[in-house]
Amino acid sequence: GASVLLLRACLALLASPIYLLSFLGIWEPFCRKVFFPFILEKICVLHDKKSKKHKEELFRSLPDFRGPSGALRLLEIGTGSGSNFQFYPPGCKVTCTDINPNFQEGLAKNMKKNQHLHYEQFLVAAGEDLGQVPSGSVDAVVCTLVLCSVHSVSSTLREVLRVLRPGGAFYFLEHVAAEHSSWRYFWQQVCYPTWKLVFAGCCLTRELWKNLEEAKFSELKIQHISMAMPWMPIEPHIVGYGVK
């Protein structure tokens, strides 16, 4: 515990300009509008390379959840710049949501590259409050690298279950806490406060599989995987889907 606190203090000292900007109320709006969209796009390029085979395997079953009309109505929580679009099946009707509306440039680029999809609308909404989406109106919900930063994981999962039709599926790929006895978890604890500040509320030590197990899915498939991300404490991941 003492080692963690000492190293946290050292890291905070290195990041002191950001802490000062946060104290002055400057960092959060700058991060939301400029830094986070820019850095997330860079991280996503690396993460997409590492996760491509996992996403291809994960989203392969999406067509199985088409609705009675034959169309697949998909809602993505935390769309960001749209890096998942390439994995969705042709003709899929996509509704994009994100709490941060400042991803337009990357989003427009990926929409143009993925014209096999039908883009229904973009909603500025948090995962915990999808009130603009009618209950039981979508066949699939997708959430990747988002549950780490929502204010309430349980509230977000309740909203997921509300908007899904019976028999619909929730797809996820998220970084999670490492084993508590590991050095990875030690460094996650060290980095936690500064990482959360710099990366717009991203929490390193969430045990998201427990939240998913507690949610009321009729079927749940979770796989623990590891994706090496150089110099980043986000190697442990979970991937899978739950059926309403």
Structural class: alpha/beta
Gyration radius from CA atoms, angstroms: 18 Å
What percent strand? 15-25%
Number of strands: 7
List the total number of helices.
7
> What is the residue-averaged pLDDT?
94
At the first level of CATH, what is the class? Alpha Beta
Instruction: Give the count of structural domains.
Output: 1
Helical content (DSSP H or I, runs of 4+) = 40-55%
- Point out poorly predicted stretches: none
Q: Encode the helix/strand succession as letters.
A: HHHEEHEEHEHHEE
CATH architecture: 3-Layer(aba) Sandwich
Side by side, the strands of the main sheet go: 3-2-1-4-5-7-6
- End-to-end span in angstroms? 41 Å
Name the CATH homologous superfamily. Answer: Vaccinia Virus protein VP39
Largest sheet, if any? 7 strands, mixed
Rough outline = globular
* CATH T-level topology: Rossmann fold
Organism: Erythrocercus mccallii
Protein name: MET7A protein
GO molecular function: S-adenosylmethionine-dependent methyltransferase activity
Describe the model.
The structure is a single chain. The chain is of the alpha/beta class. It has a single domain (30-243), classed as Vaccinia Virus protein VP39 (Rossmann fold, 3-Layer(aba) Sandwich). The protein contains seven helices and seven strands, in the order αααββαββαβααββ. Helix 4 (104-113) links the parallel strand 2 (93-98) and strand 3 (118-124). The longest helix has 33 residues, at 27-59. It is globular. The relative contact order is 0.14.
